[in-house]
Amino acid sequence: MSLPVAIVFLPLIAAAMTGLFGRSLGDKLSQLITCLALLAAAALSLFVFQDAVLAHHTQSIVLLRWIDTGPMSVSWGIRVDSLSAVMMLVVTVVSAMVHVYSVGYMAHDKSIPRFMSYLSLFTFAMLMLVTADNFVQLFFGWEGVGLASYLLIGFWFDRPSANAAAIKAFVVNRVGDLGFMLGIFAIFVLFGTFDFTPVFAAAPQMVGKTMAFLSWHPDALTVTGILLLIGAMGKSAQLGLHTWLPDAMEGPTPVSALIHAATMVTAGVFMLCRLSPLLEYAPVVLNTVVVVGATTAIFAATIGLAQTDIKRVIAYSTCSQLGYMFFAAGVSAYPAAMFHLTTHAFFKALLFLAAGSVIHALGGEQDMRKMGGLWKLIPITYALMWIGNLALAGIYPFAGFYSKDIIVDAAYAAGSSFGYYAFILGVAAAFLTSFYSWRLLFMTFHGKARMDAHRLSHVHEAPPVMLVPLFVLALGAIFAGYLGYESFVGAGQAAFWGPSILILPIHQALANAEHLSWMVTHVTLIVGVLGIALAWVFYVVAPGLPGQVAGTFALLYRLFLNKWYVDELYHAVLTRPVGILARWLWKGGDQLVIDGLTTDIPVAATRALSIQFSRLETGYIFHYAYAMLFGVVGLVSWYLVVRP
Amino acid sequence: MSHLLSLVIFLPLLGGGIILGLRGEAEAVARNAKWAGLWTSLIVFGLSLLLWTGFDTHAPGFQFVEQAEWVPVYHIGYHLGIDGISLFFILLATLLTPLCIIICWDQVKVRVREYMFALMVLETMMVGSFAALDFVLFYFFFEGVLLPTFALIGIWGGPRRINAAFKFFLYSLIGSLLMLLAILALAYHLGTTDITVAMTSTLSPEWQYWLWLAFFVSFAIKIPMWPVHTWLLDATVEAPTAATVLISSVLHKMGAYGLLRFLIPVFPEATAHFIPLVFALSVTAVIYTSLVAMAQEDMKRLIAYSSVAHMGFVTIGVFTLSQQGVQGAILQMLSHGIVVGALFLCAGVLIDRTNTREIGRYGGLAYVMPGFALVFMVFTLASMGLPGTSGFVGEFLVVLGAFEVNTWVASLSAVSVVLVVCYMLVFYRRVVFGTLVATDLRGLLDLSWREKLVFAPLLVLVFWMGIYPASFLDPMRPAVTALISRGIGGVAHSETASADVRLAAISAKVTP
């Protein structure tokens, strides 16, 4: 059995063991099995990374025939190239850290084996996604991580809010998947196969062709790309399909860190990069990606300004950072998107787990208005939160500085109006990002302690089993940018990515980003520092200021606080009407019209008719005699009169 | 073993005869009847497995053929045979019958002997319909299903059983009468009632249209298609669990099987003519019944509506007349047979314990019935078409086939992937998740070993068909290829021909 296969299936075996026999294994053994499996997978991923990326050894392993009708055939397989090797490493390392952290975080939970099993199941599905060799297996992983996400959001199934959030996540993702599925079908109609290699090879020949879709004949690659993009938008919580991500924070915090920050939500970005050989020939799709990404980046950042739930703030920042990755892919700076994906996985997982440490210390409190003054009580968590924030805000020399900077620069260097649009919104969002990040930090750790005395007395630093994973992630948040810059997006990028990412010579945003003026390359750093300063003024120097500002711009504040009323809009336009339509179709359509026409009316008519006929049978002899007499007379006269 | 097929068909009837002849103390009779029924159906299942192992995967024609004269004057013959299309439906019927006997072991308390007899007769009729190669013989089996089902609903059903039984019977009867007329007309035209002859005949288009419509109405009622689906709701809700499972898992398939066996090969031109009609009805079924399912409070009703929606995919797939679509439709039928049957069994497990079908009465069952929660989750996910389960492969192939011929049909029917989540996950949440409020639910027992025994093979099949569907797709491929080339009016019967057709369709779609 080869190494990549072992990496993918170790988590599955662990998940199956703990999921099916968790009760007999017990909590300790379940934790041990899953953590060991994941740590082993992470260690093996290092070797695969070395083999695939540094030694340029790409391979495609076919495991089993899957769906085969003759003209259409698709197999289970594992594809290892630079792109999937990077993703494997990120996924297994973060997942292993989250597994270990969960041992401490979930220590008092009743269903530890079930939790560990779901985490490992998620990791398996995510690995199937990133190592997919064809569109259908990509979809398998896609839906698999969706399932795991659903199970983990709704992990505390006695909470109605958790159940609602879990179902919402599944439904919104399915809307994206609907587009994804149709996109996959379009791929098959165009290329006659689902496998990546032949599809990518034939992509240039499809330029300029049209295909029948609904009642139109749009450009074939454009319509395919847009359909696939809808899938990516659903999974990566982009504008319009983002509503599930903040609600998903109902799940336990390790879940938010692993699934809703570091890995699953980046699947959309990964897909865009994986499909670069296709998207490069579909400029309309790329421009759409830029608009969607840039708009999401600023949109989510504005909401982050007004939220008071510590996890929701970080969730909106995730949404916003995914927007950056999207528009990076849109300007053909796929390596930059992957770079930010990698650094983001470390610092955002760190932020979530640090927030989890705060929540753990406060016995489950998530409202920042009831925090404050914690820095002396939990200094290690405080320091880790600083590291995460500095990386998120893109402050030199932390990881986010390198990756966010190159994205914004590439947008500018793209030179198109779409590029400038992304550049302006990206810079603005960077300012907001650092403002709300330090708003979170100041509200949580500084000022007066606003929780009750009982809670305050129980505040404690997290146990080592939770802190060690945080240290590992903090190392990534500090050094990943500096270490990865050269190979991911710098001079070594061509060798690093090899053939796994295609950038056409006409799309030189990333290459040109090296030669920009000082002002452009440092603007994100400048606005980042400004954001921190402003947050310091607002929340430390003059704590009365935020209230005043909110009062002055009441309309805007309410818009941000209520998340631009998107949920309310969907409820009014979709959820409620569909519910009403459902009842109406049932009571009116099925029971009244269909049953009426096919059953009730015929039954009533038959009954009425039979009553009329039964009236003929009076039982009086003379009635029958008269009827016979008239009949005989009638027949005889017919024979006599009419016949001749 | 040249009479293997006859043996599989009539062995249950023999068992039924023995059961009916049982005499003695009521309790002993009931026990013996159950054991006799179980052993008979298990032996039948074993024999039907021989059909699978002995089946030649590469041959397109009929196998295990048995032919004898029956009514020579009218050229009516006793003609049996199976191909890759019918093989798995026979297996489905022979698998589910013993499972149904096991699940109703303690449920049925009155007239156990007659109950077992009805199940045995039903099995004979179901298997017979999938193996008959003569119209009259087919009609005999197809109609023969009505009587035991009518009895199962009407005698052992719920409070409104009489109403439901008659609705079921009348609906089916109207369809059957039309089919009988069509068969008479066909026999008059062809001079024989042999199906294999009819499959290569050429009828004039006018006759094709009328006969097609007559057959179609009959099959549409059985499937059931929108808008003739309402009989199903009353029937499945009122019927005892075993009958509900057999109606939804096997009886629906007889209708869809009819489309494949008769409509397409015997009336290819009429089929092509009516494709838009079928697509319109099917897409309506998929969306309409999915929406209606969202409004249901009765769990059996909800599953029944979801069943209609899933059968909508089958009719779409059949009429795409593409390799993907038709194979997908058949796989979807098999998956539907397993998954919807299993969902009704899940509902049966709950109704057994609490005696209520109302979803709102449940909640928090994960606390007391974790094993059930897991099993129910798997089938819920399969019903939602999650990749890796059987539900995905069929639906995927059907919509792929539809996308190749008509993107409107594909896009509209694919909307159901969103709707199905809305009703299935909400259903699951309301039953299994939440807090355990109702006091009478606290004492519920998890799955018994007997229930586990029933669910185990179904779980295996759900994953088998989802992960390695080649075991099922390979044997049906030659028969489907032959069917499509007949349906499209092509002459070549080879596999390359169908690939050419697909490529031709694609090149027509993609224009430079």
What does this structure look like?
The complex is a heterodimer of chains A (644) and B (512). Helices cover 74% and strands 3% of the residues of chain A. Chain A has 26 helices and 2 strands. A two-stranded antiparallel sheet of chain A has the order 1-2. The model of chain A has no long low-confidence stretch (mean pLDDT 90). Chain B contains 22 helices and 2 strands. In chain B, a hairpin with a 4-residue loop joins β1 (63-71) and β2 (76-82). Classes of the chains: A mainly alpha (644), B mainly alpha (512). At the A-B interface, β1, α4, α5 and α25 of A face α12, α14, α17, α18 and α19 of B.
Helix content of chain B: over 70%
Whole-number count of domains of chain B: 1
**Low-confidence stretches of chain B at least 5 residues in length (pLDDT < 50)?**
490-512
What integer value in Å does the Rg of chain B equal? Answer: 22 Å
Strands of chain B, count:
2
Radius of gyration of chain A: 31 Å
Largest sheet of chain B: 2 strands, antiparallel
Structural class of chain A: mainly alpha
Strand order of the largest sheet of chain A: 1-2
Structural class by secondary-structure content of chain B: mainly alpha
Poorly predicted sequence stretches spanning 5 or more consecutive residues of chain A: none
Query: What oligomeric state do the depicted chains represent?
Result: heterodimer
Ordered list of secondary-structure elements with their pairings:
The complex is a heterodimer of chains A (644) and B (512).
Chain A: H1 3-54, E1 59-68, E2 73-80, H2 82-105, H3 112-130, H4 135-153, H5 160-191, H6 196-202, H7 220-235, H8 244-247, H9 253-262, H10 267-274, H11 276-279, H12 283-306, H13 310-330, H14 334-361, H15 379-393, H16 399-413, H17 417-445, H18 453-457, H19 464-488, H20 493-497, H21 509-512, H22 518-541, H23 545-552, H24 554-561, H25 566-616, H26 621-642
Antiparallel strand pairs in A: 1-2
Chain B: H1 4-20, H2 26-53, E1 63-71, E2 76-82, H3 84-103, H4 112-131, H5 135-144, H6 146-156, H7 161-190, H8 195-198, H9 205-222, H10 230-238, H11 241-266, H12 268-294, H13 299-320, H14 323-354, H15 365-368, H16 370-383, H17 390-405, H18 407-414, H19 416-432, H20 449-467, H21 470-487, H22 495-509
Antiparallel strand pairs in B: 1-2
Helix pairs in contact in B: 1-2, 1-4, 2-3, 2-4, 3-4, 3-11, 3-14, 3-20, 3-21, 4-5, 4-6, 4-11, 5-7, 6-7, 7-9, 7-10, 9-11, 9-12, 10-11, 10-13, 11-12, 11-13, 11-14, 12-13, 12-19, 13-14, 13-17, 13-19, 14-16, 14-17, 14-20, 14-21, 16-19, 17-18, 17-20
